[in-house]
């Protein structure tokens, strides 16, 4: 065969393959529009679910997105993106029944938003660029308004290019207090990870992902990306101690704003889970001294100081960088003089917490009849030129199959993880009831808005389609969401007027 002809054929073949990649790559900019089904006729999401204060108390806050050097510890600092100049951003506390107004001003050089994680609110206030609003441009402002109807622990964070913006510090806590609080002392702790002494981007390549997959460690990829853990933006000895006297009990609200699962260990007999994702839980059987909390998850505990001497709550010592994530618990007299380095974290018990505790108030008393069934298969794939992709039903966003619903539908979602990494799946605008794990029904189901699906696990969840709009259902390891693991709960009677990318650079 003529060599010249063979060479020409190979060139044509390569060019054809390149064209195919451009138009079929899940990350091709030519496909960055919402599926046609979302842009159908009906009612705009801007015309549904509007809420007004009426005679409710109004709580008003202002949050400014700005860049600032942030000191994590005595020897570690980062260039952070912040709300109001701190990491985490200003803690927001309101009372059940309040009407909340938050004015966001953007002083960064990139667009931002605020998503109110776990809060049931009108779709147009959900803060997802390209789906529920346009991203707030540099120098511009946006006001979020919603009713704080459900007491519990929530948090807020940017949903614009979250894999970067949340990673750089754009998050904070939102606590909706009960009208009659049950605990005199109430503290919030936001957990996170940072790449301080390494370049995170060097660890998100294809080789690192493949190593994580082969190791069968559901956290292997994230463990490569970060070298420093923080609690409320501080690490190690810079973490403020909890002041509590022996025998006193405090409500501790834990929020995982990072992308790695954490395992907090408490002194034996000191802790009981009282809420998960804003829902009160019922504990039965032996207690545990270990709290496993997934990315995006919130778990509240009642913590009782066991001894007069200083104690410690800390990351499981078996986990790399565990020494960074330790909260001293001291009496008032010890606040300035305790010996931090002499405090040791207890051994962790193996009992699962959080998901294994049943909820006080269920969405369904019995297994409901289903109007819509959806199988969500979570997997990993390859995207030529981009490295690893994270898929739902073998597709990446915005090409993932939607979950089509009508108002009032009961929706059943069976979630299976056929990959080798953990996927904490979070549903916007609704709560779901976790009915079974690996085919075995829970005796005490739990109501949540996030479930951490580990490799080879299967969960069945149910929810009621009772909040019209266009709502994300995605992995809250935002590095995985950024690479495709997102779908939309699509109400058939409404549409979104917004578009991905475009002049506002909407990147959900």
Automatic annotation (TrEMBL):
Protein name stated in the entry: Multicopper oxidase with three cupredoxin domains (Includes cell division protein FtsP and spore coat protein CotA)
UniProt keyword annotation of Cell division present: yes
PROSITE patterns: MULTICOPPER_OXIDASE1 (PS00079), MULTICOPPER_OXIDASE2 (PS00080)
Gene Ontology MF annotations: copper ion binding; oxidoreductase activity
InterPro entries: Cu-oxidase-like_N, Cu-oxidase_2nd, Cu-oxidase_C, Cu-oxidase_fam, Cu_oxidase_CS, Cu_oxidase_Cu_BS, Cupredoxin
Any single biological process term in GO: cell division
Keywords for this protein: Capsid protein, Cell cycle, Cell division, Copper, Metal-binding, Oxidoreductase, Virion
Residues annotated as domain Plastocyanin-like: 66-180, 215-306, 389-489
């Amino acid at each position: 065969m003529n060599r010249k002809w063979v060479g020409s054929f190979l060139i044509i073949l390569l060019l054809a393959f390149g064209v195919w990649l451009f138009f079929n790559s899940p990350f091709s900019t030519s496909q960055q529009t919402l599926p046609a089904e979302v842009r159908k006729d009906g009612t705009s999401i801007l015309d549904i679910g509007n809420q007004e204060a009426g005679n409710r108390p109004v709580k008003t806050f202002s949050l400014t997105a700005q860049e600032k050097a942030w000191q994590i510890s005595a020897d570690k600092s980062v260039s952070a993106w912040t709300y109001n100049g701190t990491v985490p951003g200003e803690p927001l506390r309101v009372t059940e029944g309040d009407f909340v107004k938050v004015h966001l001003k953007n002083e960064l050089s990139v667009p931002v938003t605020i998503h109110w994680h776990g809060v049931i609110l009108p779709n147009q206030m959900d803060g997802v660029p390209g789906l529920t609003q346009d991203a707030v441009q540099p120098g511009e402002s946006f006001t979020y308004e919603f009713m704080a109807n459900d007491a519990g622990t929530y948090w807020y964070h940017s949903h614009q290019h979250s894999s970067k913006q949340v990673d750089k510090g754009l998050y904070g806590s939102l606590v909706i207090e009960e009208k009659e609080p049950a605990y005199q002392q109430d503290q919030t702790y936001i957990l996170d990870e940072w790449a301080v002494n390494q370049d995170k981007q060097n660890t998100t390549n294809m080789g690192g992902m493949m190593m994580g997959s082969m190791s069968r460690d559901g956290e292997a990829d994230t463990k490569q990306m970060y070298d420093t853990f923080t609690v409320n933006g501080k690490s190690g000895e810079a973490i403020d101690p909890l002041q509590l006297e022996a025998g006193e009990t405090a409500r501790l609200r834990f929020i995982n704003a990072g992308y790695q699962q954490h395992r907090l260990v408490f002194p034996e007999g000191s802790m009981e889970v009282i809420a998960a994702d804003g829902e009160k839980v019922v504990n039965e059987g032996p207690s545990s001294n270990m709290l496993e909390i997934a990315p995006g998850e919130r778990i509240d505990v009642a913590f009782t100081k066991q001894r007069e001497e200083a104690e410690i709550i800390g990351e499981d010592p078996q986990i790399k960088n565990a020494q960074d994530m330790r909260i001293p618990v001291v009496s008032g007299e010890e606040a300035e003089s305790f010996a931090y380095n002499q405090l040791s974290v207890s051994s962790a018990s193996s009992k699962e917490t959080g998901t294994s505790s049943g909820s006080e108030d269920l969405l369904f008393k019995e297994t409901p009849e289903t109007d819509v069934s959806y199988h969500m298969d979570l997997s990993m794939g390859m995207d030529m030129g981009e490295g690893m992709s994270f898929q739902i039903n073998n597709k990446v966003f915005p090409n993932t199959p939607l979950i089509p619903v009508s108002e009032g539908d009961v929706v059943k979602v069976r979630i299976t993880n056929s990959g080798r990494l953990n996927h904490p799946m979070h549903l916007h605008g609704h709560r779901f009831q976790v009915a079974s794990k690996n085919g075995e029904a829970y005796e005490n189901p739990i109501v949540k808005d996030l479930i951490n699906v580990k490799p080879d696990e299967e969960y069945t969840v149910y929810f009621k389609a009772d909040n019209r709009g266009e709502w994300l259902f995605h992995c809250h390891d935002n590095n995985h969401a950024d690479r495709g693991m997102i779908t939309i709960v699509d109400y058939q009677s409404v549409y979104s007027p917004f578009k991905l990318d475009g002049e506002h650079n909407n990147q959900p």
